[in-house]
Every structure is written in C-alpha cells, then in structure tokens.
Specification:
The structure is a homodimer of 333-residue chains. The longest helix of chain A is centred in the last third of the chain and has 17 residues. The first copy, chain A, folds into three domains: 44 residues, no CATH class; 129 residues, Rossmann fold; 126 residues, 3-Layer(aba) Sandwich (Rossmann fold), CATH 3.40.50.2300. Chain A starts with 5 loop residues before the first helix and ends in a 13-residue tail after the last strand. Chain A contains twelve helices and twelve strands. In chain A, the strands form three sheets. Chain A has a six-stranded parallel β-sheet with strand order 2-1-3-4-5-11, with helices on both faces. Chains A and B meet through α4, α5, β2, α6 and α10 of A and α4, α5, β2, α6 and α10 of B. Chain A binds a DNA duplex (30 and 30 nucleotides) through α2 and α4.
DNA sequence: CGCGGCGAGTGGAACGTTCCATTGTGGAGG
DNA sequence: CCTCCACAATGGAACGTTCCACTCGCCGCG
C-alpha cells in the first residue's frame, strides 16, 4: 500500500517509465492511443503527480510567495483574493505570509520563500521597509513585484493615488467646500505620501491651505479624533481610506453631527462595505481585486521574461458618488 | 555564478558532504567547532537551503494547505491570520486557496495540494460540501482538520455555537424581551444549524415561540430585510453573525429606529469592527484568531501522531455586553 | 594486551521526476 | 535495394538533499 509512482503506472500500462511520464504530461510526441493507455493505467492505480520531484529536476515550482502587510484589513483581503484567483488560473499556487506590518517578519518570510523555493514573490511592503530589501531581491535574482505600495523601481501594480485624492478634493471643491482637511495617513510609505500629495496639490491649485489630521488606519482612532473636532472645524474630510472614513462618520454621529449634511466625508478604495454604510460612502474606487489580478499578471510576466524591463501598471481610480458628501440625503427625521 | 549547494559548502569548509549537511542542521553528533566551520563557509558562499530536495528525500514538506471558504469575510481573514501565525511558529508554511464557497474549486485545490505535496490540510468547508470529501481525505491518508464548520468526524477546532446563541438569547430574555427573532443563517452547514438550534432551544425553554428571518450573510441584504420590518415586529434580534448584525443596525437607522433603544441587536463573532460600531455591538466573542491557532495545533498533532484519535477542540464563547442591546428594558416593553 | 564501545566523521544509495541522447521501425525518395 | 528521415518509444543521468551503514581513532576495562 505504497504511494503510486510513474514507474508503477508504466509497468501497469506496459510501457517504459519515460513514456509514461511523457503520456501523463500529454506530450504530442506520443500516439494518442498510448497516452490513453497510460492515463487509464494511472487512473486505475490512483496515481498522484509529485510536484516536489518535478521541481527538483526542472527548477520550476509553479509556486509564488505572497507577502501581505495585513490580511485582516478588508482591502488587502480582497486584493489577496484577486491575486490568488489570477495565479490559480495560470496554474500557480500561493504561499501566504501575513507580515502584520512587521519588517522583521517580512524579511524572515522572504528568506523562507527563497528556501522553499518559489518562482517569484508578490509583496505588499510593510510600512517602513528599507530600500535594501529591493536590492536583496535583485541580488538574489528572485522575480518580484509589488502591489499598492511600491519601491522606487521594479515591477508593480497599484492605483494612481495622486489622481485619486485630486479627484476627491476637486469634487468637494465643486460642491462649494473651502475648509477641507485630510484625515489619516502620515505613515512613511509611498501610498500615504501620494494620497496626501494629490490632495495638497488640488488645494494649492484652488489657492487654499492644506490641513492634516494624522491618525493610524483604524476605525476607532479615526472616530475618536473626529468626535473631538470642534464645530468650527473643517466642513469636509478627504480620508486616507474607507476604514478611516468609516471612523469619521462614526465620530460625527457620536458627536451628534450627521455625515453628509453637517460634514462631508469622502473615502478611498471603495471596499465592499462602503455602499452599505450609513450613509452610503462617497469614495474613490480602485478595485482591490482587479489590482491583485493585475499584480499577478505583472509578476508572471517577470517570471517568464526575466530579461525584459519590469512593467509598472498604474490603474486609474474612479469617483463613486454616494451620499456621504451631501448628495441626496434620505429624508429621515 | 551558479546556485551554491551543500557540496560547495563542504568543499569550502574542507569536510565531507554529509558532514556539511549535518552541520547545517546543527546536529549534535558533530563537534561545535566543525559546525561553526561549516556555518561560516555557508555564510561566506551565500548558501541557501533547498527545501524541495529535502522534501523529496524525507517526504516532509513542512507545508500545509489552507482552504478558506471566503477570505474577504473579515472573520475568516482574521482566522487565516491566526492559522498562519501558529503554523509559522511551528516552522510550517501555508499554501493558500480561497474557495469563494465553491465546492468545485475546493475539490480542485485539494487535489492540487495533494500533488504539491503538503503535509496536511486545514479546511473551512465551503457551504454544501458533500460528506464524500471527508471520505476521500481519509482514503488519501491526508492529515486534515476543519475549522469553524465541521464534518461529522475528524480533527476540528471551532466555537460552541449552540452555547453562543443560547447565551445571547438568555441575555435578551433577562433584559425582558419576549419577542426575539433569529436573523440570518439558514445555509446548509453545521454553523447555521447549531446557532439556530441554540437560540431555538433557549426560546423553547422559556416557553416562547421561535421566529426565523433568513437572509444571506451580507450587510446589504440584512439591512434591507430589517428596514422593511414592521413597527410591531420583534423587539430583539439574535443575529447569525456580526456582519448580519451590522446590517441590522443600518436597517434600523434607515427606518428611523435606534438600535439598542428601539430594537436590541446582538451579534456573533466579535470581529474587530464590532467595538467601534455605532452603537458598539453587543456580541458573542469567539476569537477567530484564537480559533485559527487552535486549529493549527490540532492539525499539527494529527500530522505528528497520525495513529491517535483526531482531537476536537470546542471553544467556549463569551458574551460581550456593549450598547446595541440598550439598557434593561422597562416593564413597558 | 586485546576487545568493546563511543564519538566524530564519511560514503553512497535513494527519493520521483525531467531531460537528453539514443534505438528501432516503416515509408518515401533516389 | 539502399539511404535517409520522421515518428514513437526507450534508457539512463541528473537534480540536492537525507538517511543509513560504515570507518577510524581513542579510551577504559578486565
């Protein structure tokens, strides 16, 4: 009652080992009848392909390592789903590591992946990742791509963050707001910088002053901050992302203000919950799932053509108008 | 500029290949000086361990396959994080597959994992999984464990769902509620059955009639259902889980009722957002992260002791009182 | 003084594929 | 009738570890 190997299938089918191997890969060098014969024998014996042996000989593992900065964040969870979906379609399996924004853990898992070995790695860099990591990846000749957060160079897929917050800010300006603050962000990563930048530039262009309300990306923290905001504070909030925006609406509710009527709130990401929120959240859609798929494609291209230049795919965001900026509010007491 | 192998390290250190291999595993059969010598040589050459070769010879991949029914659900995302954390600590790597509740995809990914090969699989069975899957796993002699949703037998870690909804229902009864409905669930899986069961039994014990408001586990759907509820409907809702409870509070708000004052809402799971919600959600805590860790432990035990009986770890839930059930109802009702 | 046992290190087979070079066969072309 | 080629199938080395059996000194003991 041992495991069934190609050898056993070959014996059962009455052909040579290498013939059986060829047949199982459905190689056209073999006559269809022979392939048939071997397949039937394999099915009869319950043969299971052993990728580890194949990997050892061929050097291709058909496996990629995925480094997620925080999988419990719905946005990254959705992104992970997109990556997994696209890679599965291409016949790849995903090795998962959740770094929880720990640079040390990220480093450790990367080395693990290298041992495994994987054919490439897809990274959402933890906040504070040193540029040395990119250099290591290059030195190791490990095909890699980043998603959302990026390094200065290397394959990448992510949203156009500047365009996103610009869109958001201009929408608020068009609605007549003048005192518009930027809520959240402030972390030392490319996304925070770019989103702030898009907002600040739009404000400058309108001849208005920027105002930063920094907080961590956490519903509770954002809620507390907004709850404490004075009545003569900003009339509109461009939020770092939807989670922060959710916090903002909760904070307004708790202090007796109605989001959308008293203070306009606009998010970023358009995560699944945004449409169902109260009030439904106006936000910038970037489709995390689509970005995950794009990133997977970019990485696969890197793996198959390691010599070509790394591709950077920047996805255009879209403004989704709902009710948190004072569009038709439901008449409600 | 080839990859560095143990052979190369051995040559550099001036020892035999097998000695070098032993040294790299830090085997106590070797003198500390020798181990040192080899380690230094390995570091000098930039040696990277190749797990695939080790796997082939030893049959141990130190890899487990994780089948998640829906990773974009925050509860399962948190659970995934727990699994990954615990397995990493034990030196295992996680292969991820998101089945999106598709039985076909689940089956396909399971066969892929088998080829990989993994040392075991951790499964959150997709809704509608046939019992045949368990039989296949047993026939394949693939160590396995389930989390949250379970089969009739086999290793498992999950919450005591009956006790959870019983706790919730008794809490509402103690607050004076009489007309209590169960919102959500209804899917054909063990969790739905058990949660309904705990609620129904508690109601029966109090001599009251059960009432089922079935809906899918989706904020929007729950919100719409609750919004349409008549004013003389139930005064309290035991929800299938927190997402459904979130939907319920949104539905109440939209129809001009205040959750906690007009209608009591109680959730299940205590996901991260529950505490920050408006109003903060009273719920049943099951700690998805803790459950993920427990499941990982149970599976590892299965892998190291395949002969022993599979362990089933049922975690006691805890009632977390916040504000969504209001202060005790006055006799007025 | 011989023998057993132990510590430290060595040599080589084995794992299950893939890949390459090779064989045998039948038919077309000269 | 021989040569050459394409096709179909075969044989065996190689991948980088692990594992087991083995050697070689050296020490203690009867």
């Amino acid at each position: 009652m041992q495991r069934v190997r190609i050898k056993d299938v070959a014996r059962e089918a009455g052909v040579a080992l290498s013939t059986a191997a060829l047949a199982l890969r459905d190689d056209t060098k073999l006559r269809p009848e022979t392939r048939r014969l071997v397949r039937d024998a394999a099915a009869r014996l319950g043969y299971v392909y052993d990728r580890s042996a194949a990997l050892m000989r061929s050097g291709k593992s058909h496996t990629i390592g995925l480094l997620v900065c925080e999988i419990t964040n719905p946005f990254y969870a959705e992104l992970t789903a997109g990556v997994e979906e696209a890679l599965d379609e291409a016949g790849f399996v995903v090795m998962l590591a959740n770094t929880s924004e720990s640079v040390a853990r990220q480093r450790r898992m990367l080395e693990r992946f290298r041992e495994q070995p994987v054919d490439g790695v897809l990274i959402m860099p933890a906040t504070g990742t040193p540029p040395g990591l990119l250099e290591d990846l290059e030195r190791w000749r490990l095909p890699h791509a980043t998603v959302v957060r990026s390094f200065r160079r290397g394959a990448h897929a992510g949203p156009d963050n500047r365009a996103g917050t610009r869109l958001a800010t201009e929408h608020l300006l068009a609605l007549g707001h003048r005192r518009i603050a930027f809520l959240g962000g402030g972390a030392r990563n490319s996304v925070s910088r770019e989103r702030w930048d898009g907002y600040a530039r739009a404000m400058a262009k309108a001849g208005l002053a920027s105002e930063h309300l920094p907080c961590r990306t956490d519903i509770g923290e954002a809620a507390a901050l907004v709850q404490a905001l004075p009545a003569d504070g900003p009339t509109a909030l461009v939020c770092f992302n939807d989670s922060v925006a959710f916090g903002a609406t909760l904070g307004l509710l708790r202090s007796g203000r109605l989001p959308g009527r008293d203070v306009a709130v606009i998010g970023f990401d358009d995560i699944r919950e945004a449409a169902a929120w109260f009030p439904p959240l106006t936000t910038i859609r970037v489709s995390p799932r689509g970005m995950g798929q794009a990133a997977a494609r970019v990485l696969l291209e890197r793996i198959t053509q390691p010599e070509g230049p790394p591709r950077r795919e920047i996805l255009a965001p879209r403004l989704i108008v709902r009710e948190s900026c004072g569009a038709p509010l439901r008449p409600k007491g």
